[in-house]
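Human:
I keep going back and forth on a fold encoding question. Comparing notes only helps if you start from a blank page. Show me how you would write down a chain together with its backbone fold. Write it directly below this note and I will take it from there.

Assistant:
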Amino acid sequence: MGLKKLEYSTLGDLLEHEQISQEDPDTLKIIRSLRHVKVDKELSRREFLDICRWKSPRSIRQCRRNSARSVDSMCRKALTTHSEEKRLELLTSLYGVSVPTASAILTLTNPVRYGVIDIRVWQLLYRLGSVTKNPRGQGFSTEDWLQYLTILRYHARRLRVPVRSVELTLFKYHQDHQRGTLYKTLSLSGRSLSDALYCESSNSRVANGPPRGEARRMNPSATPTGIVSDSLPEEPCELLLTVRDRVNQERRIPL
C-alpha cells in the first residue's frame, strides 16, 4: 500500500496548510467521560476495556483477561511516573495491550499531551522524512513511540493545538491520499477447523501462552493473500481468532 503524490515536502508545510481536524462526537464523548483520570490517576476496568474496544475491537478478548486489580495497579503506576518509557512499559505489561493500544489509553485520558500511534500516521511521517525506519508502520517499539511523541509534541506546541489534533489531522490526510489496501492478508484455506490462530504484538504481555487447544501463533509465511478493509484495527497483530470464529476456509484475516 502506498500514498498518492503529496502536495507537501515536509510535515511542517502540511500542518501549516491543512485544516486541523476536530474530534468526532463519539470519541469526544469518551474523552469527556475520562477527564477525571488525569486528576485521580485512576482508570477502572470498565473504562480500560472501553478504550481497548475503541482502539482495537479484535483484541478485546485478550484485554478481558486483566483483572480489576491489575488494571488499577498498572494504570495508577503508569499515570504517576514521570518517565514516558516506563509509562509505556507498564501499560504494555497488561494482556492485549500493544504500543498502539497503550497510546490510545494515554490519548483518550490526556489528548493535550498524547496522540495515538497509528499505521497511517507513521507511514505519512515516513513519506515526509520525519522518521526514517519502519516504512510499513507496524510492530512499533518503545523507541518508535518516543520518537513519534517527540515529533507530534513539537508541532502541537508550534501550532498551539493538542497533540491529538495533530495526530488526527495526519490520520485523515493519509486516508484521503491512500492508494491500495492498508494491510496484507492471509487466506485460511488449507487449515483444519481445529487450528485456531493467535497473533499479538510483541509488546503485549504473554504469560503461559494462550489456553491449550485454543490458540496458536500465526505463521506469517503462509499464503495466499486476500482482501482487507479499513474497518480492521490499526495494529494488525491485535487479533484473536478461536475455533468458534472459524466459519469456513474462505475467511481471510490481516497479517
